[in-house]
Hints:
globular; alpha+beta
Amino acid sequence: VAETKAAGMNYDGDTAKGSRGRVRTESPSGVAHQTFEVLAAHHDVAECAVVGAADELKGQVPLGFLVLKAGVNRPHAEIVREVVQMVRDRIGPVAAFKTAVVVNSLPKTRSGKMLRATMQKIADSQEFKVPATIDDPAILGEIKEALKPAGYARS
């Protein structure tokens, strides 16, 4: 697998290794991929994901999910402000990145594949089926609850 360097880390497709150790990654495409790389570079982030959430004006905007490293006791709002500013500084306003939520874990299949499409449907208040291969279905409810204060997952 080809490696690329971004945000001070070496990516090998599924994980990234940097000065803070190995971080599991899932890489979407385009600007969302660049946004994802910036989020993964934050020193308090253990895992992250970016999905496209529905937006009336732009069609879709990137929405970040952050799992913090063990022992991080800083206010979540402060970390979210930092990652939003990092994206603006490194990518620019074209990224249209304004929203991230901190969650305890990300929904994955038993084989470790992140369920970004399901996360997107939850954010967009769409019906979704719980995949048969999901590792922990309770995480989907946690994702929904974390999104509500940010104005997503309204139903």
